[in-house]
Amino acid sequence: GVYTIHANNNVKSFEVRDFVLPRFEVTIDSPQTILGSDENVTLQLCAFYVFGEAVKGNATIYASVGNFDTVYANISQTKEIEGCQNFTFKAKELLFDYNNCHISILQVQGNANVTEAGTGVEIIADTTYLTVHRQGITFEDKTINDVKKAYLPALIEIETKYANGTPAINETMESCTFYEDEEICKNFTTDNNGVLYFVIPSQIRQFVKIRAVNFPRIERLFNDVMRESSYTIFFNDFQEYVDPMNTSITIMENMIDCTTGENIEVRIPVVFVATEEFTTDVYLQIQSRGQVIAFKKMSVDFTESDLRIREEDKLIPLETTPEGVILGSFVIPVTLSERASPEISILVWFAKEDGTVVADSLNAVVSECLSHKVDFSWSTPRVGPGEEATLRIKGAENSLCSICVEILSAGNNNDLDISSILSVVYNSIARPNEPQTNLQYCLNKYGLSQTEDEQPVSTPSSTTDSSATSKVSSPISVFQPQIIQALHMFNVKMKEEFVEPAPSAAYDLGTVYKAEAALNEGGATLEEESIQERSYLPETWLWLLRTLS
Q1: Which of 133, 157, 177 is the last residue of a domain?
Q2: Where are the beta strands (DSSP E) in 125-256?
Q3: At 51, which CATH number?
Q4: Domain total for the chain?
């Protein structure tokens, strides 16, 4: 209420309001990654007012481990706290690896409460679950081209990270495979981004096992304290490339470096296999964020030459080719704008004199080297509840901007960086579906009907595994998703043929369709028999159907 105090004949009025204690928050974290081989497990407890000042008081933290409804351990510690305080527990009291107990603890549950000094106000932290890592290095297969081509090597790319998520830089990796009933192993080293590169020949048909040399399996009292940091690539999951002319190419570039503020000078290496020497025009098309940013045409002599693959990058020597098979390579130089970051789609193709199309495509990562100047400022450095503030942003024309507005509490501040901004670009890339309208055309052509249960698979590409329909890749398949931009310069006509479907071990999706097209710059076609022209061509090309065995 409002009070009036009379003193010495002077009158002064003042107002008494409810006093709300400053709110503070309590969080639990781990200052470092918890490994199964650690001697101690350290949890960090922090208490801060919402305006950033540290809280003084007493804190109690509870660390427990369990499985389903069973609690194996529940330990607590109490300390005075001012801001953040570390609480260290003996690993043998939590992880059980010292007690010959065959229980693999994968999580530590943290609970805590903080009592503010002077007021007795108690805040309880949200329950936190901290991961116990049992593998020192994790692996992610970044190999872009999963198609096996006869006699051509494949570039394998594996991204490695430590348990805390940072790149495993300069780590020695042993790669092993079986060839001619003999195990062959070779050591490679990850680069400055934690990426492991090596080249395998086409004769490897089974698998390659990768093992981190410095992170072996650790056993204590018959318990796997740490699993071996290893990864296996199985090549039976790769598609087989089928080309009746035994001619194919492979792009050997998957990471492009650049310098901030400068155009990107790229030399795209391509290896090829052919059954004869010839000269033809090769086309290069590069897309970034759905737009064609580079197109180039150059004449290439397909003659036997060096593959430009370093010996230290080969897991085993490349396959010896039989007589009549030519191996070689060429390089396509192209200049890209720095705006090509963070990813580009590369398509290389050519058409032989008989109309046969040979092509390869892949997505390559471009270093984050954008140099657009961006400036932003708040209209006022400080505002109170209910007040407004505006954020003014200045950037280069057509720049991509990502704005993140956060309520900063307990001293946490997630800084924006170029990686977080470019993640918006990655998430906005359209993933086109395979064309499906061709099936209805074929059904009508041959007078076939289709029940509702036999409708074609036409779900979004994110939920469809294209490998379920076929383990075979054809030259035309590599044109997607650049098919629209690439084929506008050609007249495309193709043959029609209907065959029985091949049996499928996984799914019965009806007839397996394999695309083939005769592409010719001059509009000529290999067809001797003309087909009825249609004005509605939603599929862009027709289909040649074959049994795949």
Answers
A1: 133
A2: 128-133, 137-141, 147-148, 154-162, 172-179, 182-189, 195-200, 207-212, 218-220, 223-226, 230-234, 239-241, 248-251, 255-256
A3: 2.60.40.1940
A4: 4
- What are the residues facing 249 on neighbouring strands? 272
Q: Evaluate whether residue 529 is within a structural domain.
A: no
Please check whether residues 330 and 462 belong to one and the same domain. no
In this structure, what DSSP letter does residue 154 have?
E
User: Is 533 among the domain residues?
Assistant: no
Per-residue pLDDT band for 478 (boundaries 50, 70, 90) equals low
Which range marks the domain in which residue 480 is found?
438-520
CB 36 within 8 A of CB 225: yes
User: Is the pTM higher than 0.85?
Assistant: no
- pLDDT tens per residue, range 112-128: 999 999 889 999 998 88
Task: Pick 46 or 341 by higher pLDDT.
Answer: 46
**What's the Cα-to-Cα distance from 190 to each of 144, 157, 168, 419, rounded to whole Å?**
18, 10, 7, 21
Distance CA 95, CA 92 (A): 6
Please report whether residue 341 resides in a domain.
yes
Look at 129-143, 412-426, 475-489 and tell me which has the smallest mean pLDDT: 475-489
Same domain, 364 and 249: yes
**Tell me, what's the pLDDT at 159?**
93
Structure tokens at 181: 């009933």
